[in-house]
Amino acid sequence: MSPISPTARLSDxxxxxxxxxxxxxxxxxxxxxxxxTENSNLPKTPLPAGFPAKxxxxxxxxxxxxxxxxxxxxxxxxxxxxxxxxxxxxxxxRALSEELHNGRGFFVLxxxxxxxxxxxxxxxxxxxxxxxxxxxxxxxDANGGVLSHIKDLSATFTPDKIGxxxxxxxxxxxxxxxxxxxxxxxxxxxAKEGGVSRIGSSWRVYNExxxxxxxxxxxxxxxxxxxxxxxxxxxxxxxxxxxxxxxRIIIQYARRYFTGxxxxxxxxxxxxxxEAQAEALDALxxxxxxxxxxxxxxxxxxxxxxxxxxxxxxxxxxxxxKQQRHxxxxxxxxxxxxxxxxxxxxxxxxxxxxxxxEEQTFALNPVIRDAVKGRRVDAKN
Length: 381
Prior knowledge:
Number of strands: 19
Strand content: 15-25%
CATH architecture: 4-Layer Sandwich
Number of domains: 1
Shape: globular
Distance between the termini: 34 Å
C-alpha cells in the first residue's frame, strides 16, 4: 500500500484518519514518518506526571522468553470454591491466581476431558474451576448472562448483524476486554486451520513507548472519545486508555471502539480521532504483536489472562463441517487479589460485576451478545 500523502485529511481535525479495524503496518510506518517529519521533537516529549520511565515486574515479558508451554443440582451461579470444592486442585488454583495478579499474568490448564461431560456439566465444571481463581463473575450480556460463546456465526447472520470479530473467522487484533480483571477462555473445539490465540504484555509495550515515543504515552493517557454504539444518550464516553494507578500500569482499549466493525460502524456525531491517536492505536497493536506469545490452545484447555496487564488477539481461522472453533468465556474478579481500579474505569467495572449469583444465566448455545449486535440501520438514522 502506498504511503500516506500530505493531504488535507492529515491536517483537518474534522476528518477521521484513514484507519480501519484491521491494522496496516505500511500505513502505520508512513503515518509515523509523517508525524516525525512534521515534529522531530516528539520522542523528546516528557512523560505524563507520575508515569515511570520503565516498569520492572514479572508482568514485563516477551514471547521469546517462553521456551516451552509448561506454564500452562445447585444453581450454576452459586458455584464457588465452597460449593464446588477441589481439595487437591483448589490450593494449586489459588496459587495460580496469585501468579495471575502479581506474577507473569497468564496460565493455561491443559486438556480437560470434555468428551466425558454434557454441555451443562461442562459449563458447571468451567464455572466451578474458575471460582477458585476469582470468585466474582462479570455480566457479558443482558438478562444476567455471564457466559459467552466465541464462535463463527457468519453462516447464520449476515455481516450487518455482526458487530464484533468474535462471531466471525476474521482476525482479532490485540486488545483488552472492557470491564474485567481476568479473562478466561475454555476451548470446546479448535479450528480446522488457524485461530492461534496470542497474548502480549502491555507492560512491555509501555516500556517500549516510554523509551522511544513518550509523546504517544501522553496521548494514550489523555481522554479519548469511546464509542458506546448507542448505549448512552450522547453516543460516547470520554476516558484515557492508559493509566498509572496504585503503582501499576493499566491499558484498557479495544480498536473497534474507534474504527467500528462490520455491522457496528463508528457512530455518527462522535468527534473523529486524531492522526496522533491513529498512530497510537497502531503502535499498541504492532508492538504487542512484536512481543507476543502464541499459545497452542487445544481442545479442553482453559486459558486465564490478567486483562489489566495483557493484550490478547486471535489469528484468522478456517472451520469445516466436522471441526468448528468454539470457546466459552468468563469475565472474573477476585475481591482480595484484584487490582485497584482507576476512578475513570470504576463505573464500567461496577456495571460488569453488578449481578447477583442467583440472577446469573449461562447460555448453553452460541448467541451474539447484545453489545455487539449489528446496528447498521440504526447508525444511519
